[in-house]
Design goal:
297 residues; 0% strand; 13 helices; single chain; mainly alpha; MetI-like fold
Length: 297
């Protein structure tokens, strides 16, 4: 029986020795290429971030360097900056530990009402800041539910720096929880079991196995909570009391300067606040980079 070697018209040629299929001339991309994507990114960041910051940096110099220095070195401004950054740092540190515990409970345990507790964590995100401030003030005032318990002990919460601290803890907690929770959820339980098999105690497993893996997420949440606390305004002014040299935050002082039509003075305070916040976040990012390098080593 003879085989007809003549190819049928329109048939696909068989793969024979030496045959190479044609190469694709281009790869299909869902998103645009690097050049277009980079251009959109830089344009968007320039319009949203760089240009407003450039306008802010240019505004204080209307009265010259002496005017800027006189505004920043004002004792009232220095007192507000000290109060703002100190309470923000303390609130972020407290949330660092409290948020880790909350994220651990929500990730590792099942209990009735877990969904409700998980939803309550996001409440400071959704709650308007003015509503949060009024709620906290009514609760922690001397005649409030919580404030009345501390009033006989001589502890005043509302209209003091302690009230500012409470408000900043309230608004900063979700940043820690939501930064750590996904990492905990993906953490392999077999690693903990292996550590226990090798003789590690629960404390050693936590300090040497779990926490090093959570360190980048903890620092990310800490930086977000700190940044939010530094710029918080609405929930703080109701409970702060706004007394100069006692409970006056820097964002409120900027608003006061604007109401006095001192735009250059307001911009000078804003630049000082922005510089301190940038340096603080730079230190946090440097620490996060150091930890990541040690983790890879």
């Amino acid at each position: 029986m003879t085989v007809n070697a003549t190819p049928t018209p329109g048939a696909v040629p068989l793969a024979t020795e030496g045959y190479k299929p044609p190469k694709a001339t281009h790869k299909a991309r869902v998103l645009p290429g690097f050049g277009l994507s980079l251009g959109i990114t830089l344009t968007y960041l320039s319009l949203i971030v760089v240009l407003p910051l450039a306008a802010l940096l240019a505004r204080p110099w209307e009265h010259g360097l002496d005017g800027v220095w006189q505004t920043i070195s004002d004792p009232r401004v220095l007192a507000s900056l000290r109060l703002t950054f100190t309470t923000s740092l303390l609130a972020a540190l407290v949330n660092l530990f409290a948020g880790l515990i909350v994220a651990w409970v929500l990730t590792r345990y099942d209990f009735p009402g877990k969904g409700l507790v998980d939803a309550l964590v996001d409440l400071p995100f959704a709650l308007p800041t003015a509503v949060a401030g009024v709620s906290l003030c009514s609760m922690y005032a001397a005649n409030g539910w919580v404030g009345s318990l501390f009033a006989p002990l001589g502890i005043k919460i509302a209209y003091t720096p302690l009230g500012i601290f409470v408000a900043l803890v309230f608004v900063g907690l979700p940043f820690i929880v939501r930064s750590v929770q996904p990492v905990l959820a993906e953490f392999d339980a077999e690693v903990e079991e292996a550590a226990a098999t090798l003789g590690a105690t629960p404390l050693q497993t936590t300090l040497r196995v779990i926490l090093p893996s959570l360190a980048p997420a903890l620092l990310t949440g800490f930086s977000l909570a700190f940044a939010r606390a530094v710029g918080e305004y609405g929930s703080v002014i109701f409970i702060a009391g706004n007394m100069p040299f006692v409970s006056e935050i820097t964002p409120l002082l900027i608003v006061i300067k604007l109401e006095e039509f001192d735009y250059a003075g307001a911009a000078a305070i804003a630049v000082a606040m922005l510089s301190l916040a940038f340096l603080s976040l730079l230190l946090v990012n440097a620490l996060q980079l150091l930890l990541s390098r040690r983790g890879r080593a």
